[in-house]
Amino acid sequence: MSLIPYEPFRHLENVRRELDRFFTTGMPGLFAGTEGFLATPRIDVYETDTEVVATCDIPGLEKKEDVQIDIENNVLTISGSINKVNEVKENRMHRQERFSGRFSRSVTLPARVSSEGVKATYKNGVLEVRIPKAHPDEKRRIDVEFH
After folding, report:
1. Predicted confidence (pLDDT) per residue in 86-145, tens digit
2. Which part of the chain is the CS domain (predicted)?
3. Rounded alpha-carbon distances, angstroms, from residue 54 to 21, 65, 120, 138, 140
4. The domain that contains 42 carries what CATH number?
5. Is 40 inside any structural domain?
6. How far apart are CA 102 and CA 35, in angstroms?
7. If 33 and its partner were Cys, which of 87, 96, 132, 138 is the partner (CB 3.0–4.6 Å)?
8. Strands 43-47 and 51-57
9. How far apart are CA 142 and CA 35, in angstroms?
10. What share of the chain is helix, strand, coil (3-state, %, to 5)?
11. Cα dihedral 105, 111, 113, 118 sign
């Protein structure tokens, strides 16, 4: 006899997470040098008591205008472009594996967040976005008017 109530859909969350990872993770090397391919950089998302933190590997950004960060309806979208620094003639190129072009990644955040006070830093090819959690609606007692 099981003491835990049966939840028929509890495993679906893991399946959804794996499918999301499968269809949104870029495949390094497979599309290297392909023009027009929209890459999906890898991202880690975790939460603390006060904020949600997303770290994303995006090597090759040169200036802050190369990346855009949007938060809408609890979805974080990181997009931008990586430009080739040294243009080498194609007949001289022996191997081209470093990505250049447009990239985009959207993830649903694990908690309600506030778009106020978001901080983003880029260091050593890693973009870190710190998003404060939204304050839960505080419990409030309502006075009842008696007539």
Report:
1. 666 667 777 767 777 889 999 999 999 988 889 999 999 999 999 999 876 656 666 787
2. 38-145
3. 15, 19, 9, 27, 33
4. 2.60.40.790
5. yes
6. 9
7. 96
8. antiparallel
9. 60
10. 15, 35, 55
11. negative
